[in-house]
Amino acid sequence: MKTRDWTNPGKDELLFVPLGGCGEIGMNLNLYGHNGSWLMVDCGVLFPGMKLPGVEVVTPNIEFALELGDRLAGLVLTHGHEDHLGAVPYLAEWLKCPIYATSFTYHLLRAKLREDGVEVADLREISQGARFSCGAFGVEFVNLTHSIPEPNALLLETPLGAVFHTGDWKLDESPLLGEDYDVARLQSLGDSGILAMVCDSTNAMIAGRSGSEREARDGLIEMIAAEEGRIAVGCFASNVARLDSIVRAATKAGRRVALLGRSMQRVTNAARDSGYLQGWPKIYDARALMSAPRDEVLYLCTGSQGESRAALLRLAEGRHPMGRLESGDTVIFSSRVIPGNENEVYALQNRFVRGGIRVRTGEESRIHVSGHPCRDELACLYEWVRPGCSVPVHGEARQQAAHADLARGLGVPHGVVPENGDVVRLAEGAPCCVGKVPSGRWAVEGLRLIDDGSSLYRERRKLGRGGIVYGCVVLDDRGRLLRRPRLWSCGVFSGESEGEDEARFGEHFEHLVEVMVERGGRGASDMGEELRRKLGDWCKGDLGRVPRINVMVMGDE
Q1: 213-361 CATH choice from 3.40.50.300, 3.40.50.2000, 3.40.1190.10, 3.40.50.10710
Q2: pTM score, whole prediction
Q3: E strand map for 213-321
């Protein structure tokens, strides 16, 4: 591979650089470079779970994007999902370029920025189907269907050829909100010639089609009508069509609906601001339903992925201030489990079941359909667009590979399966990976962004596995004990014998200190290291594991 500065592509180069979303589900961020200019497409987050203790959100490492300076002409958002726009509030102070979005995405992002107190100097609302120039690129929004209003593919035009960037999409034959996809327009792209298609790989391993949102509506109407007691429905707040289906199903069953979760309020407000959800039934303040008959209540909730601060978990724990569930009530999960969230989701469902609350999922009935294309839909789009090169993104490595195999089988002449940080040459010459730029993840740590490989998280993981021990020894200037040595532990001992075990450990520590002081001849740092090592040996022999051990010896060296 060439070693060079990739920040200033020539007029005979068209480059593609993913900084997130390849080899993973989430954190989508893509860069296109041509003739000294760069365009960013999407800027999303990923939710790491317990991989990064204490961290709820990670963003892409945008070190390379920062090097672009004024060459970064703009950020175009394909749609409003968190894995495509959620990093903007965290990275906005460095992204000095204009940000382009259609109406729903624009209103959703503007609300998020206001909540977080973030100022964006140049946020531009663009109409659906619009064409505009951004740096060296012509950009056209091309409507597709997905599980959120206004999902846009992008046609990126340059003198070297056009790229079709799909964003997230599916072929929904009966979309409930927003525009349908335009087969004639998609076929016309193929007729005009598409250099490369950069395309969603999420369901590339799944045969058939993803199904229509109308099927999920019919399933929800049937299920909600059959349940007794209070009902809580968890789903992705961004799926406005699903929210609409749940509200209408509840109204048909004679139930009143309350929204639980800040993102539910944000999304429905953005939808109304963009002209959706007109004529919706009345939405109630949840507190007004606390004393309502149980068979008349439905809570529409955030937290279907087991998120720690979301409404469903707070209901499960009995600590939601505006809603409650009890034995005989029902929770419906109208969503899929995102890979990596299985433990959290199943733990949440188990908690409900143990409380006598029924749990209903899409495994029992068609109450959820995916927002991403399965293999038959991918095949349709390739037949319409007929790109010269397939670039699978938005998926784990196995999904990208399945996508690439499918494209080859459909006769696509070229294919490149990128990893985050790859520099992919789309023109001129055969498409291939020609270089590498910095990539990775930044963890949102309070008010800071920290590399996810930081020793901070290695230390936290170690503490989570074995607990921590602190020891303190104070010596005078002659190396004698000034006071009794002290030992503290956290997360090391447990059970009925916890106090006894900790006392025995403390006695062992005191004995070690007394022997070393009597022996003498060691400096404070050497004594501290030897105590740490001997305590570790004791823990390994007595507990079968070694916690994090810190021993401070204060005295003259």
Answers
A1: 3.40.50.10710
A2: 0.86
A3: 231-234, 256-260, 283-284, 297-301
